[in-house]
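pipeline/complex-builder :: batch 7 item 3
reading input block
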Amino acid sequence: MSGQPVSSPAVDGARGGIQDRESALAKLMIAPAILVITAMIGVPFVLAILYSLSDATTGDPSIKIVGLRNFRAALADPVFRISLWNTVFFTLVSQCIVVLLSRLLATALLKKFRGKWLVRFLIMLPWTAPISLGVIGWLWMFDSIFSPIDWVLRYVGLLGAPGALLGAGTNLYYLGVPGLAISSIILVDVWRILPLATVIQLAGLSSIPRDLLEAAEVDGATPWRRTLMITIPLTLPITSIAFLFGVVFTFTDLVVVYVLTRGGPVHMTQVLSSWTFFKGIEGGDLAQGAAISLFMFPVLASVAILILRTARRTEVV
Amino acid sequence: MTNVRKLAGRGGLYALLAAFAFFGAFPFYWMVIATFKTDHDLFSPLNNPFLFNEPPTLDHLKNLLFETHFHTYLTNTLWVGLAVVVITLVVAVPAAYSLARWARGWGEMLGIGIFLTYLVPPTILFIPLSRFTSSLGLQESLWSLILVYPTFTIPFCTWLLMGFFKTIPKDIEEQAMIDGLSRFGAMWKVVLPLSISGVLTVVVFAFTLSMHEFIYALTFISVSMKKTVSIGVPTELVRGDVFQWGSLMAGALIASLPVAVVYTFFLDRFVAGFTMGAVK
């Protein structure tokens, strides 16, 4: 970045000397961040690409380029194709639910009510607790024998009796049946991201100037119209940001799948990150692991650019 | 008439909030129950799982605190988290300020570039970074985590702080500079106090992100004494194939609650900070 000449368009008149000093200061202040990012993200990212083109294993980690063999091998692998589809599907379904619910929840949290502190505390728990620990709680709730959900279903007679709606068996085996395992993972994804999205939405909602809403109210705009014409357009950028972060977290998440199902039953809930881990670390095939993980990158990059663009366009209005 | 509608709206609001609170908190209630239940009560499918059918016990808690390395995981987590927070602040605050105030052209591209690096997830980086940390001789060391965690806290926090700094009108610091403060003085005495909720939010986010981190810790650390809470509890409290559910839930609960309290406390400041009283 230091090689780039920086033109400083004088905004408030000609203040040559100060402008130059300011642009030097601007560079100096951002330099450490760029250094860290280059050394710790840029270089390893390039290394990941090199690994994906090599035949490196944990036993012999030297990089010998072998071409696109690892990518072809990944694409030919049915488990990889399931992982790719699952990653997209889990992310889209869970994040659409999260955006809707978080807006609803943020609107409710803006209101004044008793015990707000406690309610917020409870709602935020999924985000504030370390993910792996929260998901361990779900693992115990989805237990094949002692699940409280099954107990309730048995109690109300939907399960475990001859002719019951959900079958005569005593348990549903949430993590053992493909459809239920997929639903369980999506549910936990929603559970985990909802607090974060709500906090971001809340920030957006409370940044709307109160006088603007009050002026609209004085002018006779109905609540519905105020939401449509003021709240939604003004908070669209921050809603996009909330959605973007949710997508990034869910798309790249390993913990939920790793703790709940380890990709099972028979790889039906495998996602790209878990498959990377099982192939690259547990299987020791660094090259294949790197190739699988790189399939995430173009999707993440294009989603980000798309949403950044939306956010910026709305800001101009 | 309006009173009735108001009351109905109130009821709807409470019902909605109760439903969300239940959804968010139930797994933790579930942890509380498991922590204090006797094994016999826990593993009887006919017992009501939501209540104590036998008197509560402290056995799981005792086992967790005295028979496992749980306290070591906590210390490790705290140490890593604090170190990461300090590194993040030192790097991200100046970077975010620079981007928010002076960014045009190259700066804006840089801001977006920094943000985009956040999209190179640990799942892509952990293979090369594990080779990297071991070549520095940091395998099985907490320093490997302290070195690597800023790769996700810095981009995220820079982006977040940039938003905060942008909401502070330039006029305020320009006025301060006209009143005789230097550029640094304006930054330190005017902008930073105004964005304190942003900085605190970043502290909380950096800490929770480090505490949540799973995949690097899982890959870099396998010695029990060096594990953080997020991997120590799920991997070490299993005997053979059998989960020690009581102690496991106790560990998850104890590690979760303090952070949750701090986070909620900062959430209030986070929202309050957004109204930016100084501008009005």
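note: The first strand of chain B starts at residue 238 and ends at 239.
queue -> next item
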